[in-house]
Each structure stands twice: as C-alpha cells, then as structure tokens.
C-alpha cells in the first residue's frame, strides 16, 4: 500500500476523533480521587480526633505537601502524554517538593528535642502507612494509566512512574487524614517510601499499558 | 506546501478535527512530505525504510490526533511523533540510535516525494480480519468511497465506517511489531 492510499483511508475515517486528551485527564483525576476516597472510607477512615487535629500545624502541613505533589505530578503527567510538549519546563516545579519537605524536617528538628527524634520518626503507624498508601493508590493508578494509554507518551516508563507518583500522592492525601503520626520526620520517610512503591509499579506497567 | 508552514498545517488540522475531510487529506499530504524528509535525513545507514516511518507516523497521528491541543504549535507535535516512531523502528530491528528526544527545536527537513517499494503496512494489512481487510483495501488501494464500498460488499455505510475505523486502529497497533 502506498502512502497516498493510506491517506485515502485515514481521510475516510476523519469523523469523530476520540475524546480530547485534556478532558480525559480531568475525568481520570476525578475518577482516581473518587476511587481513593472509597478505598479510604472502606478500609481505614479518618482518625477519631480529626477535628482537633485540623487545628494543628503539623497535621495541616501533611496536606500541603501531598496536595502540592499531586498538582505538580498531574501537570507533568499531562505534558508527558502529549507529544512535542516541553516537559522539563513543567517538571522544574517538582523542586518545590524537596524544598517543602526539607524545610518542614528542619523546623521539626529544631522544635523536637534530639532525644525524641527517633520516636517521632518511627511513630506508631509505619507498617500501616507502608501498606495503605499503596493499597489506596492501586485503583487510582489503574485509572491514571488508562488515561495515559489514551495519550501518546514518548517516554512510557517515565510517564508510568509519574502516574505512580500522582496515584501515590492522591492516596497519601487520604491516608494523611487517618494517620496520627504528623511529624515531618515520619512523613518525609515513610510516605516517600510508600509512594515510591507505586512509582515503581507505574514504571513497570507504563511501557506495557501505554504502547502506541 | 512548504515544510515550515506551521500556521497552515495547524489550520488544516483544526478543520480536520472539526470534520473537514478535504482539509484532513491536505494536512496528511503535507505532513507525509515533512516526515519523509525527516526520516531520510535521520536514516543514514539503512536498515529502515523511510516510507515505513512515514506511514507509521501518519497512522499514529491519526489515532492520536486528540493529543494535539488546538492552540499549540503543530510541527513540534508532528516531529515528536515521527521521532518516537523512528526510534521505535530502530529498536525493533535491534539497532541503537542516537536521536535527541528532548529538543523541541528541529532542523526542518525538506519535504520529499515518495518512492515506490514494498511496505510493511501491506504485511500488516494482510494480517487483519478478512472483513476489515477488504474494507480498508477497497477504500485505500482501490480508492472507493464509503458509499461505493458499502454497495460493493452489501453493507451499510455505518458498518463500513466501523470496519474501516477498527481496521486502521488494528493496523496502527500491529505496525512495526513484525
């Protein structure tokens, strides 16, 4: 078949392009959030003292970090799914995350006596954190990878990892409402490891799911 | 059409997405010429037929045209897809290839006419389900319209459109994996 013949066939199939990728991403992030909310409510639910906790800086700052991470990961992933977009430009914003986490860890080290650093770092929810952030993020990761498949990522492995980062930060946002360990030392360590697990999974699944 | 005619290509693609078939054909012809120039420039040691890259890129553009944002430049989008398909083609043939992935800036390749030879797409076409295969062949190689094809096979026009759409998607999926 010659190229001009192919063009004839493509031209005849011009009607009804698929859903614009921009809209697909909004549907995916809403779907992922709903899926994470359902898993959260079914499996663990909010901590009993959440109303009192909402007045403490440490508790609130967990959401500053996870929501900032989710927003940036979302923008980076959208860019990765569109050919010809300068991703580096947007990915620069990711620097904000180590800055926020680093500042909060530094402030915590000043606020807490050094004898208690180990205690607040280990907290009392390490295994729950390492279990439920990935578990809550599993279905969201699937939803996000489906949107990625709809796109055209030229680096599907990297895009898959960022999909895991997005799913992980959405899951961590809900998990943060359950967890009573609010120390930045705890968040910086265990949340990161839990989210990295989803990134690893996304990096493996990305090239398999988002082939085009 | 000139290779660097960004605005004209963007206008044509916008019209095509809104359903203008003629604008779409013109867009694809212009894009084919650009990608052909690009592929010939990049494939210096042989091993990959540039026209296979052209066809694979056109199919990818077709099935992924919803990833173009209508106010974004269209040439970086086209080149990014062509580059992805070229790297993919080299990878599948077990070759390493050094092509910058990140750069938007692209030396504009000269549009070039097609030369005739065997195409991978023919092999992929042969692997389609018989119904899809005959519909795609009738519209592409034989140059029939949707209506003529419907009459020829005693199908409704909608069934022809569905078979064509599925056939093209299936070709795009299988292309380059053989």
Commentary on this structure:
The complex is a heterodimer of chains A (212) and B (178). With 212 residues, chain A is mostly helical. Chain A has helices at 3-12, 21-43, 50-53, 57-80, 87-91, 96-111, 117-122, 126-150, 156-178, 184-209. Chain A is built from ten helices and no strands. In chain A, α2 runs parallel beside α9 (156-178), α4 (57-80) packs antiparallel against α6 (96-111) and α9 packs antiparallel against α10. In chain A, 48% of the residues are buried. Chain B is an all-alpha fold. Chain B folds into two domains: 1-117, Rna Polymerase Sigma Factor, Chain: A (Orthogonal Bundle), CATH 1.10.1740.10; 118-178, Orthogonal Bundle (Arc Repressor Mutant, subunit A). Chain B is built from eight helices and no strands. The chains are: A mainly alpha (212), B mainly alpha (178). Chains A and B meet through α1 and α2 of A and α2, α3, α4, α5 and α6 of B.
In CATH, what is the class of the largest domain in chain B? Mainly Alpha
- Count of structural domains of chain B: 2
Q: Name the structural class of chain A.
A: mainly alpha
Largest sheet of chain A: none
Number of helices of chain B: 8
Tell me the span between the first and last alpha carbons of chain B.
Answer: 33 Å
Mean pLDDT of chain B: 85
Runs of chain A with pLDDT <50, length 5+? none
Distance between the termini of chain A: 21 Å
Describe the global form of chain B.
globular
Main sheet properties of chain B? none
Oligomer: heterodimer
- Biggest interface in this structure? A-B, 36 and 58 residues
Number of discrete helical segments of chain A: 10
Could you tell me the strand content of chain A as a percent range? under 5%
Structural class by helix and strand composition of chain B? mainly alpha
H and E order of chain B: HHHHHHHH
Helix content of chain B: 55-70%
| CATH 4th-level superfamily of the largest domain in chain B | RNA polymerase sigma factor, region 2, helix turn helix motif
């Amino acid at each position: 078949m010659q190229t001009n013949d192919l063009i004839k066939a493509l031209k005849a199939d011009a009607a009804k392009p698929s859903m614009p990728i921009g809209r697909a991403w909004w549907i995916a992030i809403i779907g992922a959030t709903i899926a994470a909310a359902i898993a959260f409510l079914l499996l663990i639910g909010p901590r009993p003292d959440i109303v009192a906790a909402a007045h403490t800086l440490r508790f609130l700052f967990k959401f500053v970090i996870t929501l900032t991470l989710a927003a940036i990961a979302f923008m980076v992933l959208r860019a990765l799914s569109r050919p010809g977009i300068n991703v580096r430009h947007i990915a620069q914003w990711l620097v904000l995350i180590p800055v926020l986490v680093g500042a909060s860890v530094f402030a915590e080290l000043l606020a807490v006596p050094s004898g208690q650093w180990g205690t607040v770092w280990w907290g009392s929810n390490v295994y729950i954190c390492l279990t439920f952030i990935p578990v809550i993020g599993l279905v969201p990761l699937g939803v996000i990878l489906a949107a990625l498949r709809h796109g055209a990522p030229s680096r599907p492995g990297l895009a898959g990892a960022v999909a895991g980062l997005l799913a992980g930060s959405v899951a961590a946002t809900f998990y943060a409402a359950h967890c009573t360990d609010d120390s930045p030392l705890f968040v910086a360590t265990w949340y990161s490891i839990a989210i990295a697990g989803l990134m690893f999974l996304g990096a493996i699944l990305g090239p398999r799911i988002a082939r085009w | 059409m000139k290779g660097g005619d960004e605005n004209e290509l963007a206008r044509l693609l916008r019209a095509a997405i809104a359903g203008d078939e003629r604008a779409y054909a013109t867009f694809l012809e212009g894009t084919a010429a650009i990608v052909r120039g690009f592929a010939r420039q990049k494939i210096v040691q042989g091993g990959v037929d540039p026209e296979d890259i052209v066809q694979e890129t056109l199919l990818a553009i077709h099935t992924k045209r919803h990833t173009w944002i209508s106010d974004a430049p269209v040439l970086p989008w086209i080149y990014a897809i062509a580059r992805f398909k070229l790297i993919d083609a080299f990878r599948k043939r077990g070759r390493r290839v050094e092509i910058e992935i990140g750069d938007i800036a692209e030396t504009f390749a000269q549009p070039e006419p097609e030369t005739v030879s065997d195409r991978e797409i023919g092999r992929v076409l042969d692997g389609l389900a018989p119904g899809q295969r005959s519909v795609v062949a009738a519209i592409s190689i034989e140059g029939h319209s949707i209506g003529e094809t419907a009459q020829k096979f005693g199908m409704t026009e909608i069934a022809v459109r569905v078979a064509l759409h599925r056939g093209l998607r299936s070709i795009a999926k299988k292309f380059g994996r053989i």
